Known about the structure:
- The protein has helices spanning 2-14, 93-104, 124-136; strands at 23-28, 31-35, 43-46, 85-89, 108-112, 140-141.
- It is of the alpha/beta class.
Amino acid sequence: LKKLHAIYTNTCKKDGVEYIAGKAKLITAHELEVVDLEGKNPRKFTAPHMGISTGSKSIMPGRLPGIGFTFGSDGCFTLEELPKNLSIIGGGYIGVEIPCLLNCFGVKTTICMLEPSIVWPFYREITKMQMEIMTKAGIELI
């Protein structure tokens, strides 16, 4: 996973993308303020269009029976062998991407959605079609 992150970082650098680590706040539709990770040194940026990569981490429910047998999304990349079955809690982007990938390798996958649709509430027409394709491929959506 570290190697994959390094590849992405190097590709961005080659393409002239500036990486800024910190906490960002939109000031207007075209203005952004970023403070460093200590909450200091504010910098303002303006542009007609901005791409913001927020990053994310898996949230592990604390008192769920059997939680010790689970892993977050990064854990999929460290598996020594593929499981026969895998259940994913949540139908967000990563919660959909990983089971689709593992399903291609023959893992029986189930997505336990917290909302009525995957990646809710975005792209309703597309997600409806995607859910039909996933179901036809053998991914269970509950």
